[in-house]
Every structure is written in C-alpha cells, then in structure tokens.
Amino acid sequence: MSTLPHHQVQARAIALLPLMVFLTVFLGSGIYHTIIGTEFAFYQLKAPVAILPALLLAVLLHRKKLNHAIDQFLEGASHPNLILMFMVFMFAGAFASVSSAIGSVDATVQFGLSIIPPTFVLPMLFIISAFIATAMGTSMGTIAACAPIAFGFSQATDLTAIYTIGAVVSGAMFGDNLSMISDTTIAATRSLNVELRDKFRVNIWIALPAAIITILIYVFSSHSSQHIEYKAYNIWLILPYVAVFFLAFTRLHVLAVLSLGVLISGIIGLISTPEFSMLKFNTAIYDGFVSMFEVALLSMLLGGLSAIMQKEGGLEWLIQRIYVLTGLFKVGTQRAGEIGISFLVIFSNLFVANNTVAIILSGDMAREVAHAYGVDPKRAAAFMDIFSCVVQGIIPYGAQLLLACSIAKISPVELIGSIYYCWILAIFAVLAIVFRFPKLKSASL
Predict the structure, then answer these.
(1) pTM score, two decimals?
(2) Using the 8-state DSSP alphabet, how is residue 235 labeled?
(3) SS3 sequence of 317-341
(4) d(CA 407, CA 154)
C-alpha cells in the first residue's frame, strides 16, 4: 500500500463537525416530513438554507481570526472549477427549459412511440428515456416527460405500472449518468479535473453493457400489448436534442455546446411553433436559470465549506480513515483507491439524497484518494458518477422515485426492485474495479 500523502495541516476530526451538522439538519428534516406524511419529504428544507448553520459552525471552529475564516470560505467558493460548474448548471437549465417550451420533449417522445412494436413496450420505453435523458442531461425532466406515457401503457395494456415506470426511471438514470450536459457528469469531471469526453470513454464501457443486459431482460420478459396510439409530432423539434448530442462529442467547450443548444432550440421554436415568441424565449431561458439556481448555489456554498474543513484538517482526517478502510481489502493499490472513492460517493448520496450534491461533497476527498492511490482521474470520475446514479435511482426518498411514483400512484418501495438498470450497473461497476476494465491508454489523457 502507498504511504499517506504529506500535508501541512494537522488532521482534526472536529473539523468535519460542520458537515455532520449539515447532513443532520438536511436528513432530519426529511425524516420528520416523511413521518408526518409530507410529499417530497426530503425536499421540503432547501439545501442552501440547511447548510447555513454548518457554515456558521465552521467559522466558529476556525482557529484563526474571523476575517481569515471568511477569506478561506470565499477562496473555496470562488474556485475556477466551481465558477465553471455554476455557469454550466445555468446553461444546462436554460437548454432544458427552452427545448421543453418549444415542444421538443413531447415531439421526441411521440417520435419514439410511433416506432415502438406493440410487443416491445418495455425495452423501447427504456431506450426512449435513455435517449431523452442523454440529450437533456436530466433524469427528472425525462421522468416528468415519459412517466405519464408509461403509466398510460400500464392502464391500456396488461403491463403493471411498476414495470413501465421502472423502465422509464432506468432509462433516465442511464442518460443522467452518461450525458455530456448532466449535472452529475459536470460535477464529477470538474471535481477530478478531467475532460468530459475522457470520462465518457470510461463510463460507456461500463454503462453500455449494463444497458444491453437490461434491454435483453425487458425483451425476454415482454408482454403482448395492444396497438399503441401516438399523437402527431413535428420532426424538426427533435433537432435541438440531436444537435447537442453530436456537438457534445466535438472539442467545443461545454459552455459553447450548451449555448448553441439554447440558440438552436430558440430558432427552431420561433420557426416551427407559432405561439413561441421572443418574449417566451426570454422567459424560458430565465426559468431554466432559476431551475438550476439551488444546486448551483449549493455547489458554491459547499465549496466554501469544504475549503474551511480542508484548512482545518477535517478532510485530512477523513482521508486517513479511508486509507484504513481500503487497507482492509486484500487488493491492489488502485483497486483499493477505487473502492474508497466509490464508498465516499455512496455514503454521501445516502445522506443527502441528491447525486449531484453527493459528488460535490465527496469531490475533494475523491481527488485526494485518486492521487494517493494512483487511480486514473478518468476512472475516478466515472465511478463517482456511476455509483451516485446507482444510489439515486434506488433510494425511495430520492426525487426521481418520488416524482415517478407520484405520477403512477404507487409506493417508491414497490418500485425499487424494478429499477433493473441501476442494480445491473452496480454489478458491472464492481466487476470493472475487480478486473480493471476498461484498459486506458495514456495517449488519451
């Protein structure tokens, strides 16, 4: 096993107390609202507000003057990676909002429905949801668009809702994990300082086999169903998703890709949708900004909190505990590091019930572990994104399952076992760690 990296700060467990306060307040609120029966219980207390007591405590625990603690917070909150992440969140929200406003979501769904063979509803629901989520970069938007259709299938055919809704959530999590404009992808790549396309090259070799196995399960378990009716759609409205999907594979900066996506959506909307005007274009962009403001603001606040904890030795203490944990595995150094990184994001996601926030929370620590154990940053970013999406797709108090189940009027606990893709993805991710695939070429760095 490699030796611990040398740091100038003294490891202090108490420096992690502010983070525990944040998790306790946020999780405690969710548990309380679950007990009293509030819908979306874990989202009643806004995370940027829940973190304020933690920030106050972090400043009070700081061993130097108050002004120095504030300077440390501002240094962390204004890190270039966080500023870029903030901007990307904003433009991703704008693209999702504008494309939805012009009818691209509905057109893409109807296009998929028009080509579904009646006996392959489940695999096609998965494929449609996967395509939309990959193009949109959001599992929530995909579930909101596709779950009502999937629920309609369960009412019109012999398929039960847990299978049709499960297929949609599975596809949505596939796209959320792989999409170039997903906030989880952005957070993971920014945290590990790797290119989007490099993380994708690792991720696809793990996610695609899991998706193929999932599709095969749906094919072999498919039921006969009635002919599926679909609404008329405008094929041109699909172009914004297609454009962003292909632009994302070029060497254009992610902000350029998203900006072009917003522009293309707006132009197509103005041409193809009579009721879409410049004023509505303006409103849609702003609504997209607002929709992403919470996670963007939280990422900056967490960046500041992380900076204070790191300077006070909290992250150093946690890294040492992870070294102890990974040392229990009789595996190679890199495998131990990848296991540690995976545990970091899994436990973070279980606490905060938000995959993006979990990645942001564990990003600094994952980067430290990757460096110390010689884990390729591309693999580290991929595993962070994969395991965060696995957990987010199967926890009954996560937004994805709560939204899907509110549409289908079923219990989230019932649905967990039908999210086949997330379970299979977890198996393939573990196999990827154990057998060290995919093999990376240094030239791709």
Answers:
(1) 0.72
(2) G
(3) HHHHHHHHHHHCCCCCHHHHHHHHH
(4) 12
DSSP state of 100: H
Model pLDDT, residue 321: 76
Structure tokens at 82: 């966080």
Q: Is 2 within a domain?
A: no
344 domain residue, yes or no: yes
Give me the sign of the Cα torsion angle 28, 44, 361, 25.
negative
> Does 140 map to a domain?
yes
Which two three-digit tokens encode residue 257?
Answer: 């890709």
Residue with structure tokens 């433009």? 91
Tokens of 242: 């297609």
**Chain mean position to CA 18:** 24
> Which residue, among 128, 131, 240, has the nearest Cα to 176 in the 3D structure?
131
Exposure string over 109-127, b if 16+ CB within 10 A, otherwise e: bbbbbeebeeebbbbbbbb
Q: Which two tokens stand for residue 368?
A: 């430290």
Give dist(CA 433, CA 431) in Å, integer.
5
Task: Report the chain (445 residues): mean pLDDT per 10 consecutive residues.
Answer: 48 84 85 82 82 92 88 87 80 85 80 71 89 82 80 74 93 92 88 90 95 93 60 84 75 81 94 92 94 83 84 74 65 81 86 80 84 90 95 86 82 87 97 88 47
Show the DSSP H helices in 329-436 as ranges. 333-352, 355-373, 377-394, 399-408, 412-415, 420-435
Q: How many CA atoms lie within 13 A of 342 on its CB side?
A: 23
Measured between alpha carbons, how far apart are the two ends of the chain, in Å? 25
Q: What is the DSSP string of 33-96?
A: HHHTT-TTGGGSS-HHHHTHHHHHHHHHH-SS-HHHHHHHHHHHHT-HHHHHHHHHHHHHHHHH
Residue in the structure block whose two tokens are 């998790």: 23
Number of domains in the chain: 1
Q: Considering the domain boundaries, does residue 31 fall inside one?
A: yes
CA distances to 119, 224, 338, 411 from 157, rounded to whole Å, are 10, 8, 44, 20
Summarize the chain as % helix, strand, coil (round to 5): 80, 0, 20
Domain around 29: 13-438
For residue 166, what pLDDT is reported?
A: 95
User: Can you give the pLDDT at residue 267?
Assistant: 96
Task: Give the C-alpha separation, 376 to 334, whole Å.
Answer: 9
